[in-house]
Each structure stands twice: as structure tokens, then as C-alpha cells.
Write a structure and sequence with these properties.
With 379 residues, the protein is of the alpha/beta class. It has helices spanning 20-23, 30-35, 56-64, 112-117, 133-149, 167-187, 206-216, 222-234, 261-281, 331-353, and strands at residues 2-6, 45-50, 82-87, 93-98, 119-127, 154-160, 195-199, 240-245, 251-254, 297-301, 306-312, 317-324, 373-374, 377-378. Strand 11 (306-312) and strand 12 form a beta hairpin.
Length: 379
């Protein structure tokens, strides 16, 4: 495997103090905070619920705070609601509320209206290595209570800690949980309540892919982003493309072709390589500068004639593509189409920051006509 790394001017292109590797967390700069008129209460919420020791806090720490999976073994049990404000871009902008496993919905002090009213997604975590009968009972109680308050919530079930199960056992467990949960909902006349199930583990990329699916459901721009990616890859000879949030490695959009887990893992690993190389060679001697900026770009050529191609889209987003080596011979065309794609993404980003009702949804498609090629030449 050979790496061709293109990042000639890492320092200071965004005038950001510090760098991702130092804090490697989310959070707006002071100027961003002043310009951002939305308050935390306006952001959609993702609730993490489940029984004690099911892995809720570990998931949050691994995905959004870059904690090593092995370090999560030393996390203490959550004994109160922990609110984490995730603000990386207009596309990934929400709060995560981590609930203690012993929360009592029947307690009169539990305000279901306040908790569930502003919730975009409810993630219920089930420990697949434990007896999940009690977890299923709590799942039914949780989602039925939430659905009555806010039927628009996306209900997600993470069948967690599957790294210790065989492939057959994983499938059987998922099928059994799906069947039992839906039977209970049917008995309660809640057939319209839809549960999405995912097999997850913090020891591989499955937790990142599952969270990607959850976050995508909260993005009103998702159809536009997918459309832009489809146009870009179809005119550039690219096989697969992901639009990644660089810090969390959640992909906020991909093209319409099926996601192959191995391809997704390769793209995640490429982001790590780019950031690691930038930390070593891209920063000033005093550690100042930024490890990821508008000049960041990388090309990795694999031994199987496959090329991985990364380009910066915004200071929080990266486009990572997979293509054949012969297709990359038309690099100029790909670069031009990427320039048009990047311009269109920035327009979607700007539209998302406008006050509601300031423009019609059709304005989100501004720039699509540029992002393409015709008969091998750029339009």
C-alpha cells in the first residue's frame, strides 16, 4: 500500500486556535457561538436508554469523545441524566441525553412531556450477552410511553456487545428480539410504532455505522446530500462515496448504492491516517495550527488496484471516495467535479443556517447543474 499525502498548508487556514488532535472534541468557537442564534433547547435530542451496564455511556464516549474501547471498562455507572451537546456542523448538531438504567417512568417526578417532546431519536441499548427478558419489558414501557407523547420519534434498538457472539447467534438474537418486541407492540395496539434494530459493538465499526443511520434520520438535508453524491460519483467514475464527520467518523450521507462494511471501515481508517500524519508533520513546532483544513487531501493506492481519495468539504466534513485505479487517471475531471460538489454542499450548508421559511426547499438544489461531466468532459 502506498500513500500519497497532499496537505501543503495545514496551519492557520481556518484561523482556528489549537487543533483537532489536542481537544479532538466538538464545540463551537467563540465567534461561532455568538453567531449561532439557536439555543441548546432548539437542538434535536437523542436519548440513550437501557438497563444498567448495557453499554450506553461506553457508546457515547467511544463515538463522540474518542475514548478507547478498553478504557470504557473503567467507567462508572450513570446515576443521573448526563447531557452532552454535540455541535460539529449544521449537519451534525444535536444533544445526547444519557439516562441511568434505573430511571422510573412511573415516578411522578419524571416529566415525560418535557423529556420526549423535543426528542428526535430514542436509542434503547440491549446487552446481547445478558438475559434480555427484563430489557424487553423496559423497552416496551419506554417506547410506548414516548410514542404517546411524541409519535414522530425515531425508535432505534442497539443490540449491543455482539462481539462475543457467533454470527449465527447474532442473527438468532436479533430475530428473537425483533419478534418479541413487535409482538408486545401489537398486543398494545401500537403496530404503527416502528423499531429499527442494529447489531453493535464498540470494538469494531458497527457502532459508528449504526449511529450514522440514526443521525441521518435527523437531517432534513439528507435527500439533497444523497442526490449530490449520486450525481458526483456517476460523472466521475467513482464506485462509492461517503460524506464523513471527521471527528466522530459518522457518515452523514452516502450515495444510493449499498454500504459494504469493509469499504466503510477502509474509509474510517483513512481518516485516522490523515489526522495522524497531520499531527506529526502538519503542525508547527509549538503545536499550533490545524490538523485538518481546506487544503487537506489524501490519496491511498491499495494493492488491489483500488484508490481511496479524501478531500476536505468543510472544516468538519470530508468526502472519502473509493474508485478503481483506471478511473483515477482522469484526476482532473474528478477534481473539477469535486470543486462543483463542494460548492453545492456549502450552499446547502448556508441554506441550513438561514431562518426557517427564508427560502424554499428547491433552493437546496442550487449548484447541482455544475456537479457533473458530459461525455468525459466537465460541464
Amino acid at each position: 500500500m502506498s500513500i500519497q499525502y497532499e496537505d501543503p498548508t495545514l496551519a492557520g487556514s481556518y484561523d482556528v486556535v489549537g487543533s483537532f488532535p489536542k481537544s479532538f472534541g466538538y464545540g463551537a468557537e467563540e465567534q461561532d457561538l455568538e453567531e449561532n442564534c439557536s439555543t441548546s433547547a432548539d437542538k434535536p435530542r437523542i436519548l440513550l436508554m437501557g438497563l444498567r451496564r448495557s453499554g450506553k455511556s461506553s457508546i457515547q464516549k467511544v463515538v463522540f469523545h474518542k475514548m478507547s474501547p478498553n478504557e470504557t471498562l473503567f467507567l462508572e455507572s450513570t446515576n443521573k441524566i448526563y447531557k452532552d451537546d454535540i455541535s460539529s456542523s449544521s449537519f451534525v448538531n444535536f444533544q445526547i441525553w444519557d439516562f441511568p438504567g434505573q430511571v422510573d417512568f412511573l415516578d411522578p417526578t419524571f416529566d415525560s412531556e418535557m423529556i420526549f417532546k423535543g426528542t428526535g431519536a430514542l436509542i434503547f441499548v440491549i446487552d446481547a450477552q445478558d438475559d434480555y427478558v427484563e430489557a424487553l419489558e423496559r423497552l416496551h414501557l419506554t417506547v410506548s410511553r414516548a410514542y404517546k407523547v411524541n409519535p414522530d420519534i425515531n425508535f432505534e434498538v442497539f443490540i449491543h456487545k455482539v462481539d462475543g457472539l457467533s454470527d449465527d447467534h447474532k442473527i438468532d438474537t436479533q430475530r428473537d428480539i425483533h419478534q418479541r418486541a413487535n409482538d408486545e407492540l401489537a398486543d398494545a395496539n401500537l403496530e404503527k410504532l416502528h423499531l429499527s434494530l442494529y447489531l453493535t459493538s464498540i470494538y469494531d465499526h458497527s457502532i459508528f455505522e449504526a449511529f450514522s443511520k440514526v443521525v441521518q434520520k435527523l437531517l432534513p438535508q439528507l435527500p439533497t446530500l444523497e442526490n449530490l453524491l449520486n450525481i458526483f460519483i456517476s460523472h466521475s467514475g467513482i464506485e462509492k462515496a461517503f460524506l464523513f464527520d471527521v471527528v466522530s467518523k459518522i457518515y452523514i450521507a452516502t450515495d444510493s448504492s449499498p454500504v459494504d462494511m469493509q469499504s466503510y471501515e477502509l474509509c474510517c481508517d483513512m481518516i485516522d491516517v490523515v489526522i495522524d500524519v497531520s499531527c506529526i508533520y502538519g503542525l508547527m513546532q509549538d503545536g499550533s495550527g490545524c490538523a485538518y483544513d481546506k487544503e487537506s487531501s489524501a490519496i491511498i493506492r491499495l494493492n488491489n488496484s483500488t484508490v481511496l481519495y479524501l478531500k476536505e468539504v468543510t472544516k468538519f466534513l470530508a468526502l472519502v471516495c473509493i474508485l478503481r485505479e483506471e478511473s483515477f487517471e482522469r484526476k482532473g475531471l474528478i477534481e473539477y467535479n469535486f470543486h462543483c460538489f463542494r460548492k453545492a454542499i456549502h450552499e446547502v450548508f448556508e441554506v441550513g443556517n438561514l431562518p426557517q421559511g427564508a427560502c424554499s426547499s428547491s433552493n437546496n438544489l442550487t449548484g447541482l447543474k455544475y456537479a457533473g461531466a458530459h461525455n468525459g468532459s466537465a460541464v
